[in-house]
Amino acid sequence: MNFLLDTHILLWAIADDEQLPEKAKELIENEKNEIYFSVISLWEIQIKHILYPEQLPNAKTVAEYCKKSGFKMISLEDESIYRLEKLTRPDSAPRYKDPFDKILICQAITKNMIFLTHDSLISEYNVPNIMFV
User: What pTM, to 2 d.p., does this model score?
Assistant: First the structure.
């Protein structure tokens, strides 16, 4: 299977952080699975690194770790941007503002990948491409 990692899953995986759920670790380490990260995650990481340099590495360092780990990077294509218009949540769901997660979900949809996340609010999106771990 092809998995696109949410930014926090990506950071936990490359740091071997104890916050990484065991199920996510199993999926990432399974050689049958292809693991991807997005240029969008690098953008998010760089912005947060600038704000909190003592808490996060810079995007270039993260990209290097990802590539050493065998993760593959995907770029942003216009099809994923256009898909945002169709990404909806039920009216009863709490409002979700994170633009990075929204585009990551759309990338997973358009690339036919499973979006691996630990953010329970994301599960409110009505798409089959999301796996909560």
Answer: 0.95
* Domain CATH number, residue 58: 3.40.50.1010
Q: What is the CA radius of gyration of the chain?
A: 14
**Residue-range definition of the domain harbouring residue 111:** 2-132
Asked whether the beta carbons of 121 and 102 are under 8 A apart, the reply is: no
Domain count, the chain: 1
- Show pLDDT as tens, one digit a residue, over the chain (133 residues): 999 999 999 999 999 999 999 999 999 999 999 999 999 999 999 999 999 999 999 999 999 999 999 999 999 999 999 999 999 998 898 888 899 999 999 999 999 999 999 998 898 898 999 999 9
